[in-house]
Amino acid sequence: MTNKYLYSFARAFIPFKHKDFVFLWISGITSGVTMSMKMLISTQWLYNETSSSVLVGMLGLAQLFQMPVVLFGGVMADSSDRKKLMIYTQFVSFIMLFALAIFAQAGTLAPWHVFGVIVVTGITSMLGNSSRPAMLPRVIPKENITEAISLSSASFQVSAIVSPLIFWKTFEYLGPAGSFYVAAIFGLISFISPMFIKVSGETGNKSKVSAWESIKDGYNFILKHPILPGLYLLDVCVTIFSFYRNLFPVFSKELYSRGVDGTGLLNAFNSLGTIIGASIVMFTSKIKHKGRIVLFATFLYSLFLMMFGLSSQLWMGLLIVLCLGLTDGISMVTRQAIVQLTTPDKMLGRASSAHSFSAMGANHIGHFEVGVMSAIIGAGSTMLLGGIISLFVTIIFWFAYKSMRNYQYTAILQA
Fold this sequence. Notes:
Elements: H1 2-11, H2 19-50, H3 53-62, H4 67-77, H5 82-106, H6 111-139, H7 145-192, H8 211-223, H9 228-242, H10 248-256, H11 260-281, H12 290-310, H13 314-342, H14 345-377, H15 379-400, H16 402-406
Helix pairs in contact: 2-3, 2-6, 2-7, 3-14, 4-6, 4-14, 5-6, 5-7, 7-11, 8-14, 9-14, 9-15, 10-11, 11-13, 12-13, 12-15, 14-15
């Protein structure tokens, strides 16, 4: 039995034997750290300089410019050289972050610089993120795809914990300029790594079907799906009134009278909770009522959100945001699993794109809404109100959207 476990453990790391996968993996991890640090540094600097939660919230509106790319990014990744697309997009991120570092060091950094970089890198990152997973089957044998996906997913989640801690210490000891330079170094690694991948990134896709027609077919499929419209709508309704992650600098100061250390810890604990929640989903595979899992997790999420708004001690806030990440992780991964399990292969890309479009749109609008409300009624009251609204929305969906509550997963849709 011990040998069996040792073999399974060793097999999980087999993808690292393939050099092309290693370079793709390095590019993905460093890209994630780069984007995470970019947002953390930008929000902290902007809030320190202006003390305006409204301006911090407006970063969410700035990111709405990348929404069209979510729809068409997959189409572009299927018709362009994926390797070159990764290189070009990460090069833009590197240059932009390096420029912010120079401005910050010279003392000339202005809010419009930050907003401009958020818009441009948000668009380019979406293109690179569409290309990276599409390269995976080319850099790893088919029999090791599962291990490769698991490794990439686990590594990304770990980087989500590490990034806030790196941000915390670099911002505290090196200031904004030093932090941007460190983020730019990660961007440089992400930009260079794909150059060492030997396999071609050319797609050879000669399809004559227009991108718009392809997108319309995907959305027609989703509208007829028994559960996906309800899942997407529930996520949008709750997130718009409760999105909190990118406003941790505001909560750190207003709720706990802390600075960058509070921001870093809140982000790290929230990411840890997401990892735990995603792991729990692995033990729900035999539960057929997938919709109820999402509804129950969202109900608990609403309660923790209200508790977050009422908390006044940092240790309590850390435990609560961990639970928020956990319940959100369960809901998010279950939604993604439902998309994967119930969507035919020919529609999978477009269904995933629709999921990303609705989730990201809600995140960005929620980012703005929570920022504005925090300026009007305070951060704690905003979370309390968001939790109450989310709770009522979840209850309404439980009773009014019976198809989601009663839905039981079968493999019919995959046939």
